[in-house]
Amino acid sequence: MRILVVNVNTTESMTATIAATARAAASPGTEIVALTPSFGAESVEGSYESYVAAVAVMEAVRAYPEPYDAVVQAGYGEHGREGLQEVADSPVVDITEAAAMTAQLLGHRYSVVTTLDRTVPLIEDRLLLAGLAQRCASVRASGLAVLELESDPAAAVEAIAAQAELAVREDHAEVVVLGCGGMAGLAEAVAARTGAPVVDGVAAAVTLAEGLVRLGLTTSRVRTYARPRPKRFVGWPLPV
Amino acid sequence: MRILVVNVNTTESMTATIAATARAAASPGTEIVALTPSFGAESVEGSYESYVAAVAVMEAVRAYPEPYDAVVQAGYGEHGREGLQEVADSPVVDITEAAAMTAQLLGHRYSVVTTLDRTVPLIEDRLLLAGLAQRCASVRASGLAVLELESDPAAAVEAIAAQAELAVREDHAEVVVLGCGGMAGLAEAVAARTGAPVVDGVAAAVTLAEGLVRLGLTTSRVRTYARPRPKRFVGWPLPV
Amino acid sequence: MRILVVNVNTTESMTATIAATARAAASPGTEIVALTPSFGAESVEGSYESYVAAVAVMEAVRAYPEPYDAVVQAGYGEHGREGLQEVADSPVVDITEAAAMTAQLLGHRYSVVTTLDRTVPLIEDRLLLAGLAQRCASVRASGLAVLELESDPAAAVEAIAAQAELAVREDHAEVVVLGCGGMAGLAEAVAARTGAPVVDGVAAAVTLAEGLVRLGLTTSRVRTYARPRPKRFVGWPLPV
Amino acid sequence: MRILVVNVNTTESMTATIAATARAAASPGTEIVALTPSFGAESVEGSYESYVAAVAVMEAVRAYPEPYDAVVQAGYGEHGREGLQEVADSPVVDITEAAAMTAQLLGHRYSVVTTLDRTVPLIEDRLLLAGLAQRCASVRASGLAVLELESDPAAAVEAIAAQAELAVREDHAEVVVLGCGGMAGLAEAVAARTGAPVVDGVAAAVTLAEGLVRLGLTTSRVRTYARPRPKRFVGWPLPV
Amino acid sequence: MRILVVNVNTTESMTATIAATARAAASPGTEIVALTPSFGAESVEGSYESYVAAVAVMEAVRAYPEPYDAVVQAGYGEHGREGLQEVADSPVVDITEAAAMTAQLLGHRYSVVTTLDRTVPLIEDRLLLAGLAQRCASVRASGLAVLELESDPAAAVEAIAAQAELAVREDHAEVVVLGCGGMAGLAEAVAARTGAPVVDGVAAAVTLAEGLVRLGLTTSRVRTYARPRPKRFVGWPLPV
Amino acid sequence: MRILVVNVNTTESMTATIAATARAAASPGTEIVALTPSFGAESVEGSYESYVAAVAVMEAVRAYPEPYDAVVQAGYGEHGREGLQEVADSPVVDITEAAAMTAQLLGHRYSVVTTLDRTVPLIEDRLLLAGLAQRCASVRASGLAVLELESDPAAAVEAIAAQAELAVREDHAEVVVLGCGGMAGLAEAVAARTGAPVVDGVAAAVTLAEGLVRLGLTTSRVRTYARPRPKRFVGWPLPV
């Protein structure tokens, strides 16, 4: 089975981190193909960048020349999953939803710890749309920018664990979700600090995607995610 | 006062229709500048096309060389408004929300009549996110594609009025919203058939935008719609 | 165009303040007629007073002898809008809803800062009924009585700005709504303190009302706000 | 124990019907005092009439010269309960809420069958505010005006039972609430037709009121329903 | 009238406390029969114990040899009410719901003060299912185990009153609900400390049950709470 | 990896069907151990039976003498999952939630088709508690009893497919969930009839459980699902 794991930003080292997490979670026999979009921002921390990322991810998947069995969109709280479902030849799993579902299997309420304060409402919006907000106790910001996660991992663990502890103690969360594709390597350290299970979205999404493939299930074409109708486009897709 | 009214698709005749509606609704002294995106689909009827439109609209506004006072996003149920709020220098009004707010001022519940069945969930999602779903009685599809609205206006009135009547009688709507930027010219005929007020989103958005400008109010930069952070982009924006 | 702006209490100086705000927001050519009810409390700070005000406002509008184009109910969080829609000959805009809608166009969440703690639940109830509660981050009380707003404006600014700052910082509001018809003059000072847009309901309602009139839209008579049925009344309306 | 049961309209025969229902439901030793407002409409079927009734009921209770232990507001879906709680010296029970609570004790979902279509949204609004809408399957209109209930009881049973049957079969109601103070006498006949328990609001409210009195509980004065603050009123209350 | 009041745990002294509270709330002529389950935990403080209690309560009622008019399930936030409604020959009132309904009649919002932190989500779940969560301001834990309520009543009052005061001040509750069947004796002391009405579930349930019996209403057999279908059971019910 | 799949009823042939479905969905190397409770009803079609099943499933898992890695509760819409999470040594997956989550990954809305009308509200309640109701379009009953699924599979396919088609056409479902543990073998036939993906809960739960085990995640012990406190039990657990 081949799963495309698509980074939402154009920072290759981030793609490498995501790929490593995905491979660690995958079953034997699952091939992880990690893709970096050909255009877009080095990190995604707001709606403008996220919308550009949404189409960049779609184009990356559309341009992928080989067959594949599932797609994982590896950006937390980003736009685009609905469009990707229309154009991908396989089921699509967004890490935002995968992490929330996994968390809901483990505790009564979960909290998300993310990067900057400004991305909190984006994540809340995604969970609301996905029908997964009811059991979300809170979305908390660590105050770190996406790229700081890589540049200072020790500070990242500290900042994230501090918010995770507040989520458990004050917001009554019982499970912590790491709210950024680049936080994957930090799960163990945060779990040790909080005593609560910690869910990484990339890992969660890979196992959900594997499950769908094994069950032979794919995106419904009945209405919302039907294939795009034939259309005349101007200036799109971009020439590669 | 200058208001940019941005079509979401690349069909120029549709831009002209939208511009005419906007001008009819505008106060004396308001200049309507109608923009057509430089890339994207001839009509937007699904999430893939809508995501491409979202960034195309943003780029159109970013590329506009003159000052402006407000932006109207003239696609019903489309993505992108949050990103546009980050990059525009002025308040942004989405016709989906403008029509819903206007309808809520006129009756206890409203219904939206749109084009194809597949766009119904997109509109429902936009209203949910906007916090305007509670008083929405239903979103109904007329079964007409966007471009058919132009090619056969008489059939369009018939199909839309039939659904509007069902909305009033069966879904207990008291106001009807025309759920497509291209339906503007049909309001009067549909109102005559249903006895209910009929709201066109483009007209509603223009008056709301004018109101914001008159009140001196613009997008909050406090958190969600703060200006994008400085970032390194790859391959974006597109060369014009 | 003539807009009736109706104070909910019987304090004439408050009517004058409201009228001034309304005129400042109105377009050239709009005539603002400010009405004071002929009966009721000097200030409205609870449900008993608010219900009396509701009928007093309706009677004031019913007794107004000239034609008019729209009615603004200028009390924040008060009862009566539904009845006023039945009896008025024009569209009706309640400042509670007008401010919330305007705020929703400007930021992801808004907070209301009102007068006394006891009026908070009344405002929450009005927003819930109006279908505008989802994006309300909080309703906060400044602790000032309505009439204190007039008697000590400097203290009022201080108390309101303090709550507005808490709303932005702790409740994640991005827009502040002034939750009392008599707070209009304070918007600029509160905006300066919080860095967030500040919406005054009277000004917002006037622009929304103007918009409805320009669009030729009025209250739906389909069901909820149909004209009252012919009835025999005892002792009502009050002899003028 | 003395319970004031206050009709919302000025039709004395309706007050008599309500009084009879209340007495049939009351425990031995409970005195039912039925009040008719001194002003207002002969029947209440819309918001204008309902707001007038709200203050008329409050004034009737305020003018009542003897002590009392509880107040029942005997109009289904009407305004005013919150104000009445401020001014009454005892707990207040609204028949809309009493019937809904009682119905919720008996089945998974309940439906309300009321008079005219135009009153349906008023009832829905009251249930929403009361926090009792979640388990309401539907509010259905029989098409009968309030006063027709008295003039043709056989037709009333037929029309109400027909809607009750639809509520059970199509809306999945398991309990039926009679949504008008004047429907009390019809409960048995409707129950026989539907096989579902039928709840009359007046009877339900009397038993709830008795329970509160026996438990020594009364309206909280902590915030929302605190006593009105001392105020200067103009032209109010009406001279008796 | 005979009401079965069923303790959910197997501690006889707790049954005695509950019985005393029930008798104090009952009308003259109401016989209270307090039952202790024949199996289960000495106190119920989690879902495993609560599920065992649910079936133990059902079996206790099924085994009761005499006729009865109503059943009160006297455990706060416990499972089982839906099953009990199927097997009991009379209406069933759960103290969780009875207290919430009673509280809603007295103030705009109520809070529950319960025992251990781990039972808070169980109570929240029960209120959500019952459709009574909307007006619940908070569920707070006193930190006391169920059996500590008996062993140190003075500390219990202190711990509960402290949380009740926080509920009123910080969560905007206006009524306090005692969230444990064993807290009944503490209502007066907590009310004195908070100034808010305090509702005990057992007392509230007894008066609601009496009301249903007086009105001749019982559980709907239409769908959800229809009698169990004839079935072959293995190893159940337990031999007495 | 060893997964316990626990039937909720005592019909061994049903356990065999469930085991076969679970094995078909499991990865190589996963051992499925199917358990039948030692007490309870031959089929579970109501709350009384479901509560007995809840404790029977818990006791079956507690009595299982070997180590295991995950537990699947194989009854659709049944009680007990929260208690099982407290007592099981591993993550627990309920088929009701597993199927809903899987369906949400595949389409915008899903519907459940279950057995008898009386079980519909039980399923709705479980989805509400699980926070998975928002995207549920409907729960529909086929009218077949649980044991009829086995006795007449052809009629079962027909009845279920008919409701599934209505769900897609009238309720706007895009994915169909089979709402009974015993429906597993029918997925293919129903999918062929509706054109929509069909999700079987047992298969979905096995893949979710495998994923949790692979990720090393288990039930949070932070609060709700902490281990039961040490307690004195009377007459429980049942002697084996």
From TrEMBL, chains A, B, C, D, E, F:
Any one Gene Ontology MF annotation carried by this entry is: hydantoin racemase activity
Q: Which residues form a coiled coil?
A: none
Pfam families (alphabetical): Asp_Glu_race (PF01177)
Supply the InterPro entries for this chain: Asp/Glu/hydantoin_racemase (IPR015942), Hydantoin_racemase-like (IPR052186), Iso_Racemase_Enz_sf (IPR053714)
The EC number on file is: 5.1.99.5
Top-level enzyme category: isomerase
The reaction(s) catalysed by this protein are: a D-5-monosubstituted hydantoin = a L-5-monosubstituted hydantoin; D-5-benzylhydantoin = L-5-benzylhydantoin
Q: Which family does it belong to?
A: Belongs to the HyuE racemase family.
Please report the name of this protein according to its UniProt entry: Hydantoin racemase
Give the lineage. Answer: Bacteria, Bacillati, Actinomycetota, Actinomycetes, Propionibacteriales
